[in-house]
Amino acid sequence: MLARYRRMTAGEAGWGYFIRLELCMLLFRNLPGALGLWMRKLFFPGLFGACGRGVLFGTGLTLRNPRAIRLGDRVVIDENVVLDAKGMAPGGMEIGDNVFLSRNVLLVGKGGEIHIGARCSLGPNAIVHSLGQGCIRIGGCTAIAANCYIIAGGTYRHDRTDIPMIDQGQLAEQGIEVGEDVWLAVGVVLVDGVRIGRGSIIGAMSLVRGEIPAWSVAYGVPATVHKTRAGGDKPA
Fold first, then answer.
1. Per-residue buried b or exposed e for 212-231, using 16+ beta carbons within 10 Å of the residue's own CB
2. Distances (CA, A) of 225 to 87, 138, 202, 213, 219
3. 45 preceded by cis ω (within 30°)?
4. Which fold does the domain 2-228 belong to in CATH?
5. Helices (H), 29-68
6. Is 151 helix (H, G, I), strand (E, B) or coil?
7. For residue 221, what pLDDT is reported?
8. pLDDT tens digit string along 153-166?
9. How far apart are CA 9 and CA 20, in angstroms?
10. Which residue in 14, 61, 93, 106 has the most C-beta neighbors within 10 A?
């Protein structure tokens, strides 16, 4: 049981790294106030595959396999964020410079990859989940509002009815690509295979499937393009 727990939290790292990770989480994870902020700033960067300058770690941070995670400069990680790189290769989760992760954000990669460009912000309770060989790429300067859900992979086969769907396996992951300067409003859902072009806006509570061209304003279930950022009608 202990060996399984070590692999889940520290990946394939040795016992020395595992013990250091456990001590850091035990002593500093929930330490409040300025003292806690300072101690995490001092001890947490060495747990990651790479960590830039000026990174701030809030309380309640959950880390799994942090050696596969690379953080840029001046990343801000708010309270109760989960960075779960379980099963990821080194560099499988990359968070660019000046990214802000709000409270309760979940970045989860079970074998897939997650790459978030510089100056992105993720609102409270946003979830980015990459499964299998899926890759999620989010371009720089993208604003992701609260309660958004982005998932690459996870589409079960369902052709047969004699066995449960969870035993039929999943379709090959197509990944998700979100261009630069995109705004996902509250509660947007992106499913596997989505491509959103640069400068697009996705309205609140929309479900996005397929491709959204650059500079589009789209909304609905499923989301459809209603106009362009230039103020024109739906593109031909």
1. bbbbbbbbeeebebeebeee
2. 37, 20, 9, 8, 7
3. no
4. UDP N-Acetylglucosamine Acyltransferase; domain 1 (2.160.10)
5. 33-43
6. strand
7. 95
8. 877 788 888 888 88
9. 12
10. 93
Give the whole-angstrom CA distance, residue 180 versus residue 139. 4
3-state secondary structure of 123: coil
pLDDT at 1: 84
pLDDT for the residue numbered 233:
58
- Cα 89 to Cα 93, 132, 153: the distances in Å are 9, 12, 17
Q: Alpha-carbon distance 236 to 231, whole Å?
A: 14
- Among 8, 43, 6, 11, smallest CA distance to 25 is for 43
Q: b/e for 164-178, b at 16 or more Cβ within 10 A?
A: eeeeeebeebbbbbb
What backbone torsions phi and psi does residue 4 show, to the nearest 5 degrees? Answer: -65, -40
CA distance 101 to 128: 11
For the packed helices 15-28 and 2-10, what is the interaxial angle rounded to 10 degrees? 80
How many whole angstroms separate alpha carbon 222 and alpha carbon 236? Answer: 19
DSSP state for residue 156 in the 8-state scheme: B
Among 81, 151, 146, 144, residue whose Cα is nearest residue 110: 151
Query: What is the C-alpha to C-alpha distance for residues 132 and 129, in angstroms, rounded to an integer?
Result: 10
Alpha helix stretches (DSSP H) within the chain? 2-10, 15-28, 33-43
Per-residue confidence (pLDDT) for residue 132, from 0 to 100: 80
Whether 143 contacts 183, CB under 8 Å: yes
Q: Which residue has the tokens 């801000």?
A: 76
